[in-house]
Write a structure and sequence with these properties.
alpha+beta, two-stranded antiparallel sheet, 2 domains, 58% helix
Length: 413
């Protein structure tokens, strides 16, 4: 076997090992995942719609909720059907998407530059703490780095040969990007500017790029046309609210995941320069990078990062199973760990895996039973979230002890 091929396979194997080691105890299943899967399940069981899932904590001053584009939720629909609504194998596929992104990135960098740069890129990208962390859960933004690196590839191709098909592909990718993340708008503008600077057919290629954008973002475009431009007006109002009240929102690293491959490429080029100066120093830099990333607070080999310490997907699943086994009627759920008070993850599991439908997230008063998933130190007499207070329970008992820390409580009036 060719030495280069062997090294690439070795790095890919190690990157797979880093992600799948102790996998069932490390995957993150929180409210974000429950909401996304729940919306997609509703497409199948209730009503198919062009509207995506609501975004957490994104409401305008006029009381309108920001919704994501629905392409992400559409992509989950066939997976729910294939895996019978089980989040575990779907999470596995998202981990594999992470690996595929690494491999495609490597091949693109090898094509654009050379094998050596691509190999260093492979090492840095495979063991980047952010990429490892994102591989542990289902999330709307996990496809963004792949969109970013493919966009970089077609910008490179367009810089060599100004074919309209490349511009169309860039438009399609950008349309999908903004369907997944609103802040991708700035990347759309940047790509558009680059195309205009490179092309000799500015009007034609701008038109082609715009057509690609509309096609790639077709669900939001059609929904806007049919519903008085709800997406556009709500986003514009949120933008104005942010200008006048900047503390209500902030930019985070995940708004720029499309640039992650570019950042890793930049680090790879720097690393090559260091190796040229001193190989020992270069090896030390790689070692420092690996230690820093693999021991960061974004990576753990024993627990699920992003979930309350000691909590795992298996415990959450057992909580849902025990609630369903109680044969509840006219009930609702509160999920205290991770502050998922509306219990999106438990709601999804109970409803779709165990076929017991809780009341809506607005109804916590006109119900007979309230199930609380919490820890052993739960005390009904202490200040509690609105969902518990509004129920006004008179009786509380332990439904099931899940382990030494987590319990399902059953409250009745």
């Amino acid at each position: 076997m060719n030495r280069n091929i062997f090294l690439v396979i070795l790095i890919l194997f190690l990157s797979i090992f880093v992600r799948f080691y102790n996998y069932s105890n490390r995957i993150n299943f929180s409210g974000e995942q429950g909401l996304a899967l729940g919306v997609s399940a509703d497409y199948i069981k209730d009503k198919f719609t062009l509207l995506g899932q609501k975004t957490f904590l994104r409401t305008t001053s006029k009381g309108h909720i920001l919704f994501s584009g629905s392409l992400y939720n559409y992509s989950l629909v066939p997976l729910l059907s294939i895996f019978n609504y089980n989040p575990y194998p779907i999470t596995v596929l998202f981990t594999l998407l992470n690996i595929i992104t690494i491999l495609i990135s490597f091949l693109i960098i090898k094509k654009i530059i050379n094998f050596k740069t691509a190999f260093f890129y492979l090492i840095l990208f495979s063991f980047n703490n952010t990429m490892i962390n994102h591989s542990m859960y289902i999330w709307i933004l996990n496809a963004i780095p792949l969109i970013g690196i493919i966009s970089l590839f077609y910008l490179w191709k367009f810089s060599k040969i100004q074919k309209s098909i490349y511009v169309l592909i860039l438009g399609l990718l950008s349309g999908i990007g903004i369907n997944l993340e609103y802040v991708y708008l700035f990347t759309i503008l940047l790509i558009g500017i680059i195309i205009l600077l490179k092309t000799h057919k500015k009007v034609k290629h701008l038109a082609v790029y715009t057509i690609g954008l509309l096609i790639g973002n077709w669900t939001m475009v059609i929904f806007d046309i049919r519903h008085d431009f709800y997406y556009t007006k709500t986003l514009w109002q949120y933008f104005l609210d942010t200008i006048y009240h900047p503390q209500q929102s902030h930019l985070s690293y995940y708004h720029f995941l499309q640039y992650w491959p570019l950042m890793i490429l930049f680090l790879s080029i720097i690393l090559i320069k260091i190796f040229r100066i001193n190989k020992t120093l270069g090896l030390i830099m790689i070692l420092v990078y690996l230690v820093f990333n693999l021991t960061s607070n974004q990576v753990s080999f024993v627990r699920a990062v992003g979930m309350t310490k000691g909590l795992t997907y298996k415990i959450v699943l057992r909580a849902a199973e025990n609630i369903a086994r109680d044969e509840p009627k006219n009930f609702n759920i509160v999920d205290l760990p991770d502050s998922d008070f509306r219990a999106y993850r438990l709601r999804y599991l109970v409803k779709n895996m165990f076929n017991k439908k809780p009341e809506s997230i607005e109804n916590y008063s006109n119900i007979d039973t309230l199930y609380i998933f919490g820890q052993k130190d739960f005390n009904i007499n202490k200040p509690q979230p609105w969902e518990i207070q509004t129920f006004k329970a008179k009786n509380i008992k332990i439904l099931s002890e899940l382990d030494n820390n987590y319990i399902v409580y059953k409250l009745t009036k």
